[in-house]
Amino acid sequence: MDATAISISGLVKTFGPTRALDGLDLSVRTGEVHGFLGPNGAGKTTTIRTLLGLLRADAGTATLLGGDPWQDAVALHRRLAYVPGDVTLWPNLSGGEVIDLLGRLRGGLNKQRRDALLELFDLDPRKKARTYSKGNRQKVALIAALASEVELLLLDEPTAGLDPLMEAAFREVIREELKSQRTVLLSSHILAEVEALCERVSIIRAGRMVESGTLAELRHLTRTSIQAELVRPPDGLTGLAGVHDLVLDGTRVHLQVDTPRLDEVMRHLSAAGLRSLASQPPTLEELFLRHYQAEQVATPAGDGRATQEGARR
Amino acid sequence: MSGFAGTGRLFRLALRRDRIVASAWILGLFVYAYSQAASIIALYPTQADLDRLARTAEGVGANPAVVALQGPAYDASTYGGATAWQVVTPWVFLLGLMSLLLMTRHTRQEEETGRAELVSAGVVGRYAWLAAALLYVLAVNVVLAVLTVAAFIATGLPAAESTALVVDCALGGLVFAGVAAITAQLTEFARPANEMAFAVLGAVFLLRAIGDSSTELSWLSWLSPIGWAERFQPFAGERLWVLLLPVALLAVLLVAAAALLVRRDVGAGALPTRLGPAEAPPWLGSPLALAWRLQRGTLLGWTIGSAVAGLSFGAIAQDMVQVAEQDPETAKMLASLGGSGSITDIYLAAVLSWLGMLAAGYAVQATLRLHSEETELRAEQVLATAVSRIRWAGSHLLVVAVGSAVVLATGGLVAGLAHGLRAGDLGGELPRVLGGALVQLPAVWVMAAVGAALFGLLPRLVVGVTWAVLAVVLFVTMFGEPLRFSRWLLDLSPFAHLPKLPAAAFTATPLAWLLATAAVLAAAGLAGFRRRDLASTA
């Protein structure tokens, strides 16, 4: 088995004048749960649809399970399962019929696992698809995917319509997937979900990869917030590398520091004598927000919107 | 009367929402009625013509198949009476169809989509949706009635009787607004509500078809609102009291609907939702099986339509000889349709070509299923499994190809049976008529292949362009000869190249060309589809 399940480099996909993917790079290792994050319209769905051979890339290369997503689509699809972000079903088929049908078209379904998943997700398979809510339609697609014996799962915001209880059930199942050495590409908006499930994450913005690595590495990229009350005013904090948003008010200090520089800053602070100290650990949320918001600041409003619409098509 | 609060607003909302839908219904039904009145005058210019029509259409001499489809003629010796005979039965059926569809659209469909819930949270009474929908259907009927009466008067029919005829028909149709008001309370979804109301409409039509065409069972027609509209005897000594029947029934239906309405929750149906199977049947495991599962309802509908058309065509074929003997004008018209056989054969060849065009309608609609599956993102899920694009699209096209043959064979078989039995030569006529129907198949396949080619190559325009191509082909085929279109224009229609069986000899060459054309178009469509992006806008 290849060490890399998904490998994308320089992928470009344009829809008319908009570039939904603009030289995207992405690498997913075999056997990992990889979080795929980005604001709406960043190109997550376009990436997944290109990996499925539903869209044809304009430039760049993509390799999926050692094959070409466009040329080898059918052979590759036997080895993967896909859950779209917006699941539409055939209104007069029952949920159970859809699960069996999709499983069979994929090349087989584990009956026991199907029944266990139906129970876990509390889904009545006899209801006609037209009577299902968004969450229940998502469950149908999830069960069909998870009950298939495949190597790779491509999940596009799979919990968007699920209630918290079902989200928990979903996490439980994905943790099991980890044990069985399946690879999962999980596009998501829910940070808690990503933190709980993924070893590595990639953040995409406007069709480009902006950050990729393990959660620990990414935490490293975040800043720790520090509030301190000192004995005497500190020396040398102003202009120190890695210090941001410094507010000095006599002996009171408020600052943000890049996590790798934390030690140096602490030495400066303790040299001035510490009376009290409060620090907030780095959160991924902060990192994500920085990237998400950066888009609005960095790109002109009209341009950014066009990219989002383009990517959603 | 707080139960009706907001009715006026909802009524105006319905008008605003349905500007186009309502206009299309009104226009279509108006043209239907007006064209019948106008064509009677054109076809029977003198009183002698009308008297001849009356002799063949009235009483025991009437063709029972015609009576079953069109109702009895009470007095065909006047323009009004003949128009009433042509209009009433089919028109009440169509008015009923319109009334029930519009009623469901503005009651159950609004609830199904959740829009009603949003609106009902405001100052809206419990009965307001039902009342507004009824008012709206009434308004559409009134507009249609006024237009139609004016058109009848313009053709020279007397005003009072024209009004009586139109009111009679409208009341018959409105009964089905009442039927839909009830079915809308029963199910959670608009589609089954409509299906139940269709079933009632079909049963009501069938009851009077049996009653009208037999003597012992004629009382059955009195159980049918369509039968009532006939028995009102418009333009043949109107029996005003008959109008009380639809009014009373409508009132009962509406009271019952209101009673059901207050006993259920918003969004729920009075009947429990039917559950489907928990597991797929073993056969449902291939793209072809899925295509069949999705397409079989459409095929059934068109097959029934084809059978009805075949029955009405086949049943009167034998009468064409008589018509031709009595009426040299009609004979000349028939002869101009082409072919060289007997008048009956020429007639059969013409109507079997119409059957072919009906099958083309099915083929186009069924082919366009590819497009709706794709744009509604269901194809995406199938194509993300181990199913190639060619196999997925090919499965649907295979169903269309076989389905077209089924539609044609059914229509041909029924027409052949009806004609063979009346002609007293079932063994001889049935294969000839069936052959004349099946020979249409290559032209039908060409129409489906046009849809497939556009689906692959011009996916954004496929729906509009494919229907437009079909409309042009139908127009050229039906009116091209009488309007003296130039040859090349006539040859654009694939139907123009078919041998006119059973009036002409069979020739294989044009059929081979048509099959080759269909194959090339379908292959081009599949090749285009394999190369392009899948649509991703819903």
- Identify the most extensive interface between protein chains: A-B, 47 and 38 residues
Q: Looking at this structure, what is the CATH superfamily of the domain at 4-79 and 151-218 in chain A?
A: P-loop containing nucleotide triphosphate hydrolases
**Structural domains of chain B: how many:** 2
- Please report which band the strand proportion of chain A falls in: under 5%, 5-15%, 15-25%, 25-35%, 35-45% or over 45%: 25-35%
What is the count of β-strands of chain B? 0
Q: What is the percent of helical residues of chain A?
A: 25-40%
Low-confidence stretches of chain A: 297-313
The N- and C-terminal alpha carbons of chain B lie at a distance of 43 Å
- CA radius of gyration of chain A is 23 Å
Average pLDDT level of chain B: 90
CATH topology of the domain at 4-79 and 151-218 in chain A: Rossmann fold
Query: Looking at the structure, what is the overall shape of chain A?
Result: elongated
Q: How helix-rich are the residues of chain B, as a percent range?
A: over 70%
How many helical elements of chain B?
Answer: 24
Q: β content of chain B, as a range?
A: under 5%
Topology as H/E string of chain B?
HHHHHHHHHHHHHHHHHHHHHHHH
CATH class of the domain at 4-79 and 151-218 in chain A equals Alpha Beta
The strand count of chain A comes to 13
Secondary-structure-based class of chain B equals: mainly alpha
Give the low-pLDDT segments of chain B: none
Structure description:
The complex is a heterodimer of chains A (313) and B (538). With 313 residues, chain A is of the alpha/beta class. Among the domains of chain A are: 4-79 and 151-218, Rossmann fold (3-Layer(aba) Sandwich), CATH 3.40.50; 223-280, Alpha-Beta Plaits (2-Layer Sandwich). In chain A, 36% of the residues lie in helices and 29% in strands. Chain A contains 11 helices and 13 strands. Chain A is elongated, with a radius of gyration of 23 Å. Mean pLDDT of chain A is 87; it is low at 297-313. With 538 residues, chain B is mainly α. Chain B folds into 2 domains: 2-37 and 88-262, no CATH class; 287-531, no CATH class. Chain B is built from 24 helices and no strands. Chain B has helices at 7-17, 19-43, 47-57, 64-70, 79-106, 108-112, 115-120, 128-154, 159-186, 190-213, 225-231, 244-262, 287-316, 319-326, 328-336, 343-367, 369-375, 378-383, 389-423, 426-438, 441-457, 462-479, 487-491, 509-531. In chain B, helix 5 packs parallel to helix 9 (159-186), helix 9 (159-186) crosses helix 10 and helix 16 runs parallel beside helix 21 (441-457). The longest helix of chain B is centred in the last third of the chain and has 35 residues, at 389-423. Chain B is globular. The model of chain B has no long low-confidence stretch (mean pLDDT 90).
